[in-house]
Specification:
147 residues, mainly alpha, MetI-like fold, 6 helices
């Protein structure tokens, strides 16, 4: 138990690391505030363009959305920060994070699909599926009330 407390409840280490943790917290808040408008603007742009129902453009947008959503954010950060300089585009770390977080926009495909009514699956489950199971009968639906 003493070994556990020495490793995980070391208050001296926490006092030393606390300023760094606070700095990381503020940087996270600042990056979130900066990346949120970029993600919203990009999501709205993609959603509006998708709603025009231009077949070839919708396919390009779906490929973009699926590629952005399939990459982990850390991979996008590495690609943007270290890969773009090979193309002659150099970004500082702060801007690279904003671009990566804005480009990912998790849930973008779902919002686009729901806004354009282009769902290929039922929008609501069958009404019988939403009824609770009756413990008395062991079947779906309600048990018949005694007459």
């Amino acid at each position: 138990m003493e070994l556990f407390l020495d490793n995980f409840a070391n208050w001296d280490s926490l006092k030393d690391a606390y300023p760094l943790l606070l700095q990381g917290l503020w940087m996270t808040i600042l990056l979130s505030i900066a990346a949120l408008p970029v993600g919203i603007a990009l999501g709205l742009l993609v959603g509006v363009v998708y709603s025009f129902h231009i077949r070839w453009l919708n396919r390009i947008l779906i490929v973009y959305i699926d590629l952005c959503r399939s990459f982990p954010i850390i991979v996008l950060l590495v690609l943007i920060f270290y890969g773009l300089p090979f193309l002659g585009i150099t970004l500082n770390a702060f801007v690279a994070v904003i671009v990566a977080l804005g480009a990912v926009a998790r849930g973008l495909k779902e919002s686009v699909m729901s806004s354009s009514q282009a769902m290929s699956w039922p929008e609501a489950p069958h009404p019988a599926a939403s009824r609770p199971l009756s413990p008395a009968s062991g079947r779906r639906g309600s048990a018949a009330a005694p007459g």
